[in-house]
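Protein modeling request. Please complete all fields; requests missing the sequence field cannot be processed.
Requester role: graduate student
Desired output: 3D structure, token encoding
Chains: 1
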Amino acid sequence: MMADLVLLDNDVVLKTACFSLEQEMLEALSPSGASPSMLGVGRYVVTNKIDRSSRIQSAETAKAALGAILKQISFLEPDESELAIAADFEAEARRINLELDGGESQLLAILINRSGKLMVTGDKRAIRAISVVGDGKVTECIGCFEQLIAHLVLNYWIPSTRDRVCAEPNVDRAISICFSCTSDETEPPLILNALTSYIESLRKEAPKVLVPGEDFSILHR
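Delivered output (221 residues):
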């Protein structure tokens, strides 16, 4: 049992590093003082993506933020039983024509097997798949990237938050739209309204699995 376990997928770590929101993210997702975790191989995958991506404006800034994240989080490996559970999830997703890759399925298996608190993923396709293949096994313990950003806006907003996000407008187009990166400065309430729209749209497709609310405040209660 690891009731305080919070799992991050590669996409969340990558985008958080690109936006230089690493310290805010780590504080938000360590409500009990325990560091969040990612798969061990993820550190290499994310580093490689930063090195190879043409969408990132400042790879050096992103790598510096990634380095700070990697020093403070934990790394997990699935055991044999979790690998078997993950394989079953992937097979079921393929059978019903949904997308669930190996990393997401392994995180899901770890979340269930170790009674984790939360899994945060930037992959909406995975969340839709989890809502089906994980039905009855996971309830209100999956968080999307928009919920993480909404939490940071609500709890850690400073003027430079928007500057940091908009400095990397191609990293996540939906987030760039929410922050109105191509227009005049936008205040937090308008950003939150836009984020909420994305979150509620996803909730309609995965009503049972998303964390309640528009952010992760429930974790801190």
